[in-house]
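Why do we bother with holo predictions? Because pocket geometry can differ from the apo form. Keep that in mind while you read this record for FE2/S2 (inorganic) cluster.
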Amino acid sequence: MSADGQIVPVADVPTDTTFLFRVRPTDADIQESPDRESGEIREAIMLRDDAGVVGWLNYCQHFRHIKLDKGSGAEMRNGEIICTNHGAYFESDTGFCNFGPCEGAYLSEVDLAVEDGVVQLVDDDYEFVGCGGIETDPTDLGSKSNREF
Ligand code: FES
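The structure, written out:
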């Protein structure tokens, strides 16, 4: 959809996994990850439930360069988003980690709203860039495996 904040028709947002999109921080102070430049494009995810849609940055709170949705939808179980690297569980409606190495942490929220059946980015800290993930992401090297050799 257009770059004016309209992301996707709400009917196209899954309920059993996540929809991936890209945002750019508009606030120079936002440093969600120490290895990212201020203003650098980030990935975000959204999912839908009976209450509407919720959005989060697509990064675990244990190792914050690790993506929850690696391009084909995040793993989910019983309404919780699972980080497949070390098994952290995040409540999809609050972003709260209730199990795993970052227990007690929260995912970083991205504010969304539904207007006329379309999901809009309404977060003053971010602007919508596009749907899908970052195709070439130099900080994504650890997203597939977190093993150190
Ligand atoms: S990187 Fe997500 S639980 Fe460790």
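The radius of gyration is 14 Å.
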